[in-house]
Protein 1
Amino acid sequence: MERITAILSRQAAIDALLRYTDGLDRADAAQLESAFTENAIIDLTAFSALGMNYEPIQGRDSIIAACMSAVGDALETTHSLTNILVKLNDQNDSAIITCYSESQHIKKGQAFASDSQDKSLIVKCRYNASVSQQGPEWRIERLEVIRDPERIKSPGSSTLQVASAGSFTNFAMAHSAQQSETILGLSPFAIDFLMGGVSAAISKTAAAPIERIKLLIQNQDEMIKAGRLDRKYSGIGECFRRTIADEGILSLWRGNTANVIRYFPTQALNFAFRDKFKRMFGYQKDRDGYALWMVGNLASGGLAGATGQLFVYSLDYTRTRLANDAKKGGQRQFNGFIDVYRKTLASDGIVGLYRGFFPSVFGAVVYRGLYFGMYDSFKPLVLVGALENNFLASFCLGYLVTTAAGIAAYPLDTIRRRMMMTSGEAVKYKSSFHAAKQIVAGNGVRALFNGAGANILRGVAGAGALSIYEQLQLILLGKTFKGE
C-alpha cells in the first residue's frame, strides 16, 4: 500500500510541473494558477547571463501575470520534460523534482511556415522544483530554471531578442510587430482587473441580502441603544420578514454599492503591497520549517492587510453604517454613502471612520492562523487511506476548516462593527477590550456571535453565484477571473 501511495504521489507531483508547462503552451491563466501555491517563487537569475537582470518572481499572481505577458497572443511555445527525478519526503506530501525542459518559441501563426526553422528559438534548461500537496492537488512552491548556455540557440539565421517582461523572459521576433495581448481591446492587466471586479460585484450582490441580515442581527443591540430599533430580531427568517415589511425588498441591498466599490482600491493595493510583504517574509515550509513559515504567512498577511485597510477601511465602515440604518418612522439616519462620510466627519472627525480598525486587522491574522493551523493539523489525520486523494473529502475538510476559523474569529468582527456603530453617538467604547467587556456584560458571550449563522449562509450564496459566472467566463473568454 505504501508503494502504491508513493507512486501516486510521485505522479501527482510531476503533474504540477506539467500543468505549469501546459499553461504556458496554451497561455491559460487558470491552468497556471492551478500549478502554483499562493507564495510560490520562480527563480530565473541564471538567465542574467543573457544580458538581462532577472529577479526571482514571488507570488502566484505575479508569476501568472509575467507568464501571460511573456507568451500572450504573439508567441507559441511547446515544452517537453525529460529525465524526471522525484524525491518524496517520508510523509509523501512534498517532493523535490529535477528534470530537463526543451522548449520551442516561435511567433504565433508561423509554426507551419516554410521558413519556420529560421524563426524559432530552442531552449534547453534544467528545472529544480519544490512541490507539495495542497488539498486535492500538488502545487509548485519554488521553481528554479537553470540555463544551459550550450542549449539555447536559434536554428536559422534570423535573430530573436530576449527581453524583459515584468521580470520574466519575454521572447519576441526582432522583425515582428509590437506584441499585443488584448481581450476586447484591453490590456491583460485591465481585463483581469475589470473582470475580477465584475466577479466580485456578482458574488457580493448575490450575497448582499443575507449579508445585510447578518449585519442587522450582529449589531441589533447597538441599534436598540441608539433608539433606531424597537425590539430584537428573533432569528434570520424574522429579520428578513421585518426588514422587507418595513423597508421593502430592495432595502436588502442597502450598503452593497459601497461594498462593491471597495473591491477596486483593495485590488489595486493588493498589487502594490502583497508581493512586497511576501518577499520580506518568504519562508518555505520544507526549507525553513513549519513555525517560521506560519510566522511569515501571518506577518505578511497582517502587514499587507493593515496597509490596505488604511486606505479602504472607511468604505467598509460606510457599508456597515448603511446596512444597519434601519428605517424608523419612515426616516433614515443616512441618505447614502457620501452622507455617511459627511456626517461622520462632522461629528467625530477622521477617527470616526476608523473605529474598530485594530480588531479588524487582528481578526484577519487570527483567521489566517487558525485556518492554516487547523488544516495542517487535521489533514494528516483525516485525509488518509481511501480519503487521501479524494477531492470531495478534501473539499469538505477545507470548507469545515474555513467555517470553523470564521466562527472562531467572528467575535473580533462583532467588536469592530459595534465600535463602528458608535461613531456619531454620545457614548463610545474606549477600546476594543472595553467594547468586548461591555458587550459580554450587557448581552452575554452569545452576543459576540450574533449573525454567525447568517454569515455561513452568505459564503454559500456568494460562492454559488460566482461558480455560475466562472462557467460563463470560460465559455465567452476562455478563462476565469476571480474577484476577492
Protein 2
Amino acid sequence: MACKWRSTDMVSREMGDRRQSVSRQPSFTLSEWTDAQEDLLDVEAEPQTPVFDPEHRADGDAATLTVTPVGLQERRGSNVSLTLDMCTPGCTEPYGYGAQLSPRDQSAQEYLREGSHVLTPAMLHSRAMDDQSLQAEFYETPMNFVDPKEYNYPGLVRKNRYKTILPNTHSRVILKSQDEEDFLSTYINANYLKGYGGEEQAYIATQGPTVNTVGDFWRMVWQERSPIIVMITNLEEKNEKCVEYWPEDAVTHEGIGIRVVSVTQEDDYSLR
C-alpha cells in the first residue's frame, strides 16, 4: 500500500497549536479508501514532550541535559497550566542550548513562510538525528492560539475536545450541510495542511473524535475522499480517551456506512 507520510515537525510548522514530539512508537490505525484523492491525518496525541532545564548552560555537555517530561497540553496550552514562560514582544531570552524564543513582533504566518523549506530524505534523516537543533527549532516556532471569540457560537463547546485548541479560521475544513446558515452543522475541529512541496490542502489535521463528533468525522472523511487515516494516539493516554470511531464489523454514521473488511495486527500498529 502506498502511503504519504509527514514528519511531526512539518505538522508542527503548519498547525502551531497541534505540535508534538513523538517519544515512543505510537499505535496506528490505517484505513484504506479506493477512490480517493486526499489524505487525512488524525492528530490528537498526548506524547511526552521534554522541557528544557533553564539552568542548563548552552555550552554544557549535551549528555548532561536535564529534561522534565510533560504532556503536550502543557506545551500548547489547554485545560492545564502552561509550564513555559512566554516572551513579551521583542524578547530574546536564551532558552536552553543557546536557543532563543521566537520574536513576537513577527506573525506566525510570516515566520512559517520564511522558515519553511523542503528537505531531502538525507537531510530529513540528519535533522531527525540531531535532537539539539530539532528541539531548538520546535521552541522557536511561534505559538498559534486562536481567539475563542472567533468561535462564539452557542453549543459549539460540545464540538471541541479542548476549549483552547481551536481550528485556524483561514484553513479550517467546512462540512457541507443542507443548512449552510447553521454553523454547528458545518463545523469540525480540523484544518487543511500543505503538502511536502507546498501544495494546498494535501492533508487534514483534526482532533481525535469524541462521542459528539464521530458522525462529523466520517462526514469529513467522505466529503474530502480521504484515502488514508493515520491515528497518532492511543485510545487512552493519561486518562484521556479517544472514541473508537471505527467498528468491529460495520456501523452507520450520518448515513455513511463503514465496514471493516480485514484487520492486520502488528507489534506497533493495526491496519484496517
Protein 3
Amino acid sequence: MNKKLLLLLPILVCLLLASCQNGGSAPVSGTESDTYPASLEVETTAAPETSVPAPETSAEVVTEPALPESTEGTPAETRPSSMPEGMFEHPLTGMPCETDFSLSRPVGIMINNIPDAMPQVGVSKADIMYECLVEGGFTRLMMVVSDYANLDVVGSVRSSRDYYLDMCANHDAIYVHAGGSPMAYKGIRERFINNLDGVNMYTPDTFYRDAERMKTMSLEHTLMTTGKGIVSGIKFKNYRTEKPADYPAMFNFTDLGSERTPEAMNAESITIPYSFIQTSSFVYDAEKKLYAKNYNGEPHLDSANGEQLAYDNLLLIFCNQTVYTDGSGRIDLEYIGGGEGYYVYGGKAEPIKWHRYDRDAVMELKAADDSPLTVNRGKTFIAIVNTAMEGSVKFE
C-alpha cells in the first residue's frame, strides 16, 4: 500500500468516527471562496430535531421538480378593493394579511444562485427578492420575508457581500448568511448589523447541512435554515424584533383596489443579462398579472412546491460596478448616491430614478419627473444591474 495512504488512513478513521458521534451531521463550515475573521471559531451545528424534515421527505427537496402548473404570487382576482375587517396591510407587499407585521423586522436570507446549487428550496416565499452580481459572473439572491417564523426549509444559504447589508437597511432586516467576504465582515462589525451567520457564529438549531444534498453537492451548497431555526437564532442573540415606529418604508403603495400601469414602453418580456454567463428573464402573464421568472432561459423553480417564481412588480436599479484589485474578483458596488432604473408592472415599464444618501438609509424611488414613485401592491423583484449592461437589457 502507498506510504502516503498509510499515513492518511488513521486521520480518515478519526474523521469517520467523529461524524458518527455527531449523528452523521456535517460540520457547518466555510469554503475557499469566502474569508472569515481569525477571531471567530467555526462552530459545528447538528441538524435541529424540531425543524429538519423527516428522512423520507428529504428526497423530495432535492429531486428535480416537475414543470409548474401555476406561478407563485397574488392573482388579480384575489386582490381586494378595500382592507377586509380584521386584516392588516403587509409592510412589504401592501396586501392584506392576518398578522400585523407593520412594526416587525423582516429577515434577509442570502440564497445560493449558481447552477451547482440547484434546486433552491423555499424561495417562492419571499415578499421581496433581490438579485445582484457577485464574483465569477454569477448572481446571488436575498429573499426578504416578514413572516419568517412560518417558513419551512429554505436554502441553500450562502455567504455575505457588503452591499447586501445596504439592501437589508432598506427594510431594517435581520441578516441571515453563511460566512462572507472581508468587506462584508468589516461592515457587519462596524455597522453593528444584527446577523445570523451559519459559519462563524454559534446559533444552536438555526442552520443544518442537508444530508441528501451532501450526496451530490459540494459542502457550500448544502447549508439550510428554517423558520423555527431563525426564530431560535434571533432569540439566542437577543436581537431587536421590532422596527422603530418612524422607520421609513421603501415603497409608496397605490390605494387598495386601484392600479397604476406604466405607459412609457412595452414590457411583456424582460431580459436582464447580469453577465455573459447568467441571465434572468421575465414573461408577463396577463391573466394572472404576474411576471414569471426564468433562470438562463428555463423556469426558475422552488423545489419545495414545484412552482415557478413570479412577481407583481419588477424594479431594475442600475449601479456602477467595478472589481476590487485584490485578486478576489469581488464586486465593488456603488450603491450610494443615485442613478436610474425602470419600474415594471402590468406588461409595461417606465424610467425611474433612485437615490441613497447613506449606506444605512432607505433607498428613495422617484418617477422620471422626480415625484415619489407609486408602486402597485404585491410581491416585488429587485434587480441590481451593472450600469455597463444597461444597453443589453431587453424589453419586448
Protein 4
Amino acid sequence: MTLTIGVLWLSDPQNEPSEILPHVYLGDVSHSGQRALLEELGITALLNVSSSCDNHFQASYTYKNVIVSDNMDADLISLFPELIDFIGGCKSVNNYNIVL
C-alpha cells in the first residue's frame, strides 16, 4: 500500500488537491469533506492545519490536527518538526497518501 499525505486550507485554489511531493497533496477544507475524492487519490491520512476544519471521516482516515489561526501572525515554522514527524510516521507504516 502507498501512503499519500494532504494538507487542508480554508480557501479553494482549485477543484482537487495539488500533488506537491510524491504522495503528498496540498488541499483545502472543501477537499477534506469529499470522501470520493480522497478515495480516488488514495488518501489515507490528513494533516489538518486550521482552527475550524472538521475531521469528517475519523473512522476511515488517520488525522493529525494542528490548531492554527488563519492570519499573518501564525507561527507555522515552529510547527514544522511536529508536522514532519507525522508525515514521516505515515510514510514508515506505508500509510502514505496524505492531504495537507
